[in-house]
Amino acid sequence: MTVSENAYQKLIQKYNVPCPRYTSYPTVPFWEESQTNAKQWFEAVQKTFNKTNENQGIAVYIHLPFCEQLCTYCGCNKRITKRHSVEEPYLHALLTEWQNYLDVFNEKPIIRELHLGGGTPTFFSPKSLEFLISEILKTADLHPDYEFSFEGHPNNTTEAHLQTLFGLGFRRVSYGVQDFDEKVQRTINRLQPYENVAFVTETARKIGYESVNFDLVYGLPFQTLETITDTITKTLAFRPERIAFYSYAHVPWKSPGQRAYTEIDLPNDAEKRALYELGCQMLTEAGYVDIGMDHFSLSQDTLYKAHENKILHRNFMGYTTSSSELLIGLGASSISDAGTAYVQNEKHVERYQEEILQGEMPFRNGHFLTENDLLIKAHILDIICKGETEFTPELLRTFDKSVAQQLAQMQYEKLLQFSDKGLKVSNLGFTFIRNICAVFDERMRQKHTAKARSATPQFSQSV
To answer: Do 82 and 223 lie in a common domain?
Structure first.
């Protein structure tokens, strides 16, 4: 650390404020289209597809929102049910939505990246998942460097799930482990025995999966330095190729399940930061590399290689090795990115299905990026993926006095260094990278009025 411990704690206090995670720019709360025009959206999709399909290929994200029980810490869009009869109509809606995109493409799409997220994708039976993926692959070609991944719950991922998806081309799996401590698990309503995690990890490796990721969360109720030490120690015994060590986002105004416990049960700011520092130290000492934004990787993994080669990309799926400009999101609440435009689907499952089957597109909010948006987006992506950016005359013209002052202050605080070309984030600065990106966030500055400051927070704390 290049500053004293006292100075570091002051920086934590200063910058631990609500801040976006920048999976897009502008971020969702600042999108301008409350009801996106389908014709305009498909024009943007077609333009980007024509430009990128042959070389980059496209990315596909499929949201499978069903879970059998509510994990109270979770802020994702999900539908809680034990009725597996919901699978068939939802799959039908997904494939109908995909066909709508195929009708827009003027040639066969080349899939570079495909990810199943949730909810709980392994809520669906292996047979259902095989049907879904097989139907999509019938209509597309695969990029030479394609990468398929899915999220699995350790309690319901079976050998049949892993074998079926492996046969379809999946080589990466991510398990939501969160924490191994039983008291923490009971509080967040996610009891999953160590033996279940061991089984799904070892089975994936036995089948031939090349990359296993564990999602861990710090800042959960009743976590302590002792419980985090135990969780990280047990995690390291499995040696997953990737580890996402996420900060718990306490947003009970968005996720009412989080009201099952109170702020008193949560580590305070200093305690939460100590949990992260300890976890980060244990991971780096074990040979993991901090890729950025709470992601760690072993050196043989493709995420590390993309980081080293400065070709890491970030989109609504998080960090990715693919730089596809076109991301098609299928399913309730899914977000699509056409490079120059965003759109999000209806979040309510039944309304999503009804609109799709009536021949309508279930679009809700969206945004068509201005030239200035595209400029700022490029710089935020460079900062968050490469840790540096080069200033352009166009960008400098967008700076107002407050932007220059904030960046100068961050240089004084040793969070970044200026060069003749632009800026580079320091090792210390990576802790505050969301705050650095926020300096460039013109949309947030414009909306940050006295009224907005007094309203309900829209983002989780940044550190």
So the answer is: yes
Query: Residue 267 is part of a domain; what is its CATH number?
Result: 3.80.30.20
**Are residue 145 and residue 77 in the same domain, yes or no?**
yes
Burial of 176 (0-12, 13-18, 19+ CB in 10 A): buried
Domain count, the chain: 2
Q: Do 127 and 168 fall within a single domain?
A: yes
DSSP secondary structure, 316-384, as one string: TTEEES---S-EEEESTT-EEE-SSEEEEE-SSHHHHHHHHHTT---EEEEEE--HHHHHHHHHHHHHH
Neighbours of 396 (CB within 10 A): 11
Are residue 136 and residue 200 in the same domain, yes or no? yes
- Same domain flag for 203 and 313: yes
In angstroms, rounded to a whole number, what is the distance separating the alpha carbons of residues 360 and 366?
Answer: 16
pLDDT confidence band for 460 (50 / 70 / 90): low
User: What confidence score (pLDDT) does residue 448 get?
Assistant: 62
Q: Is residue 343 part of a domain?
A: yes
Read off the DSSP letter of residue 422: E
What percent of the chain shows pLDDT beyond 90?
Answer: 75
Through-space distance between the first and last CA atoms of the chain, rounded to whole angstroms: 16
pTM exceeds 0.85, yes or no: yes
C-alpha distances out from residue 411 to 16, 147, 404, Å: 18, 39, 11
Q: Choose one of 348, 368, 388: the last residue of a domain.
A: 368
Residue of 145, 134, 197, 196 whose CA lies nearest to 171: 145
| Cα dist from 385 to 42, 174, 295, 433, whole Å | 28, 21, 11, 10
